[in-house]
Amino acid sequence: MTLFDPSMSGEWRFDPAHTRVGFSARHAMVTTVRGTFKEVSGVIRVDAEEVSRSSVEVVIQAASVDTYNAQRDEHLRSVDFFDVETYPEIRFVSSTVDEVEEDNFMVVGDLTIKSTTKQVAIPIALLGIQRDPMGNLRAGFEATRRLNRKEFGLHWNMPLDKGGVLVSEKVSLEFEISAIRTEDAGQAS
After folding, report:
1. Of the candidates 33, 40, 34, 37, which has an alpha carbon nearest to the alpha carbon of residue 16?
2. 130 has which bridge partners?
3. What is the pLDDT of residues 53-91, one digit of tens each?
4. CA 175, CA 161: separation in Å to the nearest integer?
5. How far apart are CA 123 and CA 144, in angstroms?
6. How far apart are CA 56 and CA 44, in angstroms?
7. Inter-residue contact 12 to 180 (CB < 8 Å)
8. How far, in Å, CA of 65 to CA of 82, rounded?
9. Contact partners, residue 8, CB within 8 Å, separation at least 6
10. Taking the CB of residue 8, how many other CB atoms lie within 10 A of it?
11. In the list 18, 48, 142, 143, which could disulfide-bond 8, CB 3.0-4.6 Å?
12. pTM of whole model > 0.70?
């Protein structure tokens, strides 16, 4: 039975305290480095009767990148990577939302990193909908999408002595989203 029904329609805002947008990339061809963006906002406008009329918008503050290494984080903020002084935001705006199977959606839209905008498709799973102790109607979503960072102008790299490069071109984006329906925000049950 689907978790999604007409009563779910409305505007849902990301709960930043319970939402994570992260990434992982290979480092020196032998290990994986993981990071997260600490400042993420987003809104999901749901039309549960006609899912194709739904939309998603996500805004990430690029300077909030955190890989648990201050030197690496500063390098990621520099012109070699995100150039946060010139391009403070990473933005995704959907163009289509389709339910591809029960509680699983394909969200297609424009992802903008630095000055490059490309259309990407992100498969998203609805994990559940629950009323929390504060009376908020809350929905949980997860998604993973692998991208080539060079397609978004993130070209910096260094060759390794025995072949390969320091930072992989392929990066996995990870989304763990908790969203609260705005009509319910702050209401007690």
Report:
1. 40
2. 138
3. 999 999 999 999 999 999 999 999 999 999 999 999 999
4. 35
5. 7
6. 5
7. yes
8. 10
9. 46, 48, 129, 139, 181
10. 18
11. 48
12. yes
Residue 148: name the closest of 124, 170, 120, 175 by CA: 170
- Beta strand segments in the chain, E: 10-14, 20-27, 31-37, 40-46, 55-61, 65-66, 89-101, 104-113, 116-131, 137-148, 167-181
Phi, psi angles (nearest 5°) of residue 122 = -125, 115
- For residue range 129-179, list pLDDT tens digits in order: 999 999 999 999 999 999 999 999 888 767 767 766 667 789 999 999 999
3-state secondary structure 44-73: EEECCCCHHHCEEEEEEEHHHEECCCHHHH
From the CA atom positions of the chain, what is the Rg in Å? Answer: 18
User: Would you state the structure tokens that stand for residue 189, as one six-digit string?
Assistant: 């049950």
Alpha carbon separation from 123 to 74, 115, 168, 175 (Å, rounded): 31, 24, 23, 10
The pair of structure tokens assigned to 19 is: 């939402």
Q: How close are the terminal C-alpha atoms of the chain, in Å?
A: 25
**Which residues share a beta bridge with 27?**
31, 167
In whole angstroms, give the CA distance from residue 117 to residue 102. 30
Query: Which amino acid appears at position 54 of this protein?
Result: S
